[in-house]
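Internal tracking record. Fields below are filled automatically when a chain is submitted to the structure queue. Please do not edit lines marked as system-generated. If the sequence contains nonstandard residues, flag them in the REMARKS field before resubmitting.
Queue: standard
Priority: normal
Entity type: single polypeptide chain
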Amino acid sequence: MHANTQALLDFFQHAHLPKDLAEVSRPFGELAHKVAEHLDGPEVTVCLRKLLEAKDCAVRALVATKRPSPESQPSPKP
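SYSTEM-GENERATED OUTPUT FOLLOWS
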């Protein structure tokens, strides 16, 4: 496996994440490892980068659902 491929796979680790974020992240990591195991060439790196971007977006989407909406927060006092 190319060093760049391995370096990208490191970003798919999810054990350090809280359980709910890890559950969102895990399928992306599984797919990334399958791609890296079965395919080779420069397009694999491109694929993994785009998959990493998608994983990050999915995790951020879950994080965003946990934030209180601006409407639910009290207005600052002058």
